[in-house]
Design goal:
alpha/beta, four-stranded parallel beta sheet, 39% helix, disordered N terminus
Length: 114
């Protein structure tokens, strides 16, 4: 690794949209928080990110991650500089099943995840 590589500041933004209880904790680590966001807020924030040229990791609470919308679908399909992932709700963390679980089961079989 080159000596001039800066690992402490990548320039990427961490953006969290979800309930106040879930998002509030992320504000403690410096994330951009949009508490009690709705699907319209998700679309607005994602459009701004797409147009800004910034790199970002966007964390969406489950109900928002499944809300659909032009920008959400577009950025998920594009991949690249804006990565969108899902967070389980605080009230039901055990009900969360990542979308990748379906892919793993399809490739490795139904018993793959025990």
């Amino acid at each position: 690794m080159p000596a001039d590589t800066d690992l402490t500041h990548s320039g990427a933004r961490l953006v969290v949209l979800g309930s106040a209880g879930l998002a509030g904790g992320f504000s403690l680590i410096g994330a951009e928080v949009h508490a009690d966001a709705d699907p319209a807020t998700v679309e607005t924030v994602l459009e701004q990110l797409a147009n800004s040229g910034d790199e970002a990791l966007v964390l969406l609470e489950t109900h928002l991650a499944h809300s659909g919308g032009y920008w959400l679908n577009r950025l998920r399909n594009e991949g690249g500089r804006i990565v969108i992932t899902e967070l389980p709700p605080l009230s039901a963390p055990h009900d969360y099943a990542p979308a990748v679980d379906e892919v793993v089961r399809a490739v490795l079989g139904p018993e793959a995840l025990g």
